[in-house]
Amino acid sequence: MLEAPDRDTNMRKYAVPTIVVLALLLAGTLLFAVQSSRRSTNLEARIADLESDRAELQRERADLQTRLRPFETKQAAAARITQEFVVPAGMIQSFSFSPSVVPGTLSGSWRSSGAGFGGADDTIAAFRLTDPKDAVLESSPRGSSGSFLVKLSAQGTYQFFFDNSGLFRSTPRRVFLQTDFKAD
Length: 184
Hints:
The protein is an alpha+beta fold. It has one helix spanning about 5-75, and strands at about 80-85, 90-95, 105-115, 125-130, 135-145, 145-150, 160-165, 175-184. It folds into two domains: about 1-75; about 80-184, Jelly Rolls (Sandwich), CATH 2.60.120. It is about 40% helix and about 35% strand. Strand 4 (about 125-130) and strand 5 form a beta hairpin. The chain is rod-shaped and about 145 Å long.
């Protein structure tokens, strides 16, 4: 006759492997938890480092923008003017220029032409460049061309005057004006 296995024997037989398996699962879970905690701590440290780096880069960027601003202002203040107009006979024609930034340097040239109007020559009676207080910065009497190089120090409107008046001025003159302004 077969005997039924003893219940205690079966329990003992399976209890040890079950405990070992449970112990291994518990150890694995603890190891995973420790590693996850370390990873979490490492990630938090990296995030803190990145935020610190970001703050430092933002400070550097603000510093560079502050240092760059004067150069951008100078570049924005630079102006090139190319203008052509007709000065009627017996008249004075003006052209205005208002720099956005001073001090600076205004340089350029002008020329006049009587061609196409039946004039005997290309000359105008006079050229004059004045500051905002009407002080003469550059001038030339009778001529058909000229150049100028002046320092602009006052804020306001500077005026170019082209004079085609006088006894022998019976025909218009075409004037070509080219200037460059650069902030100091």
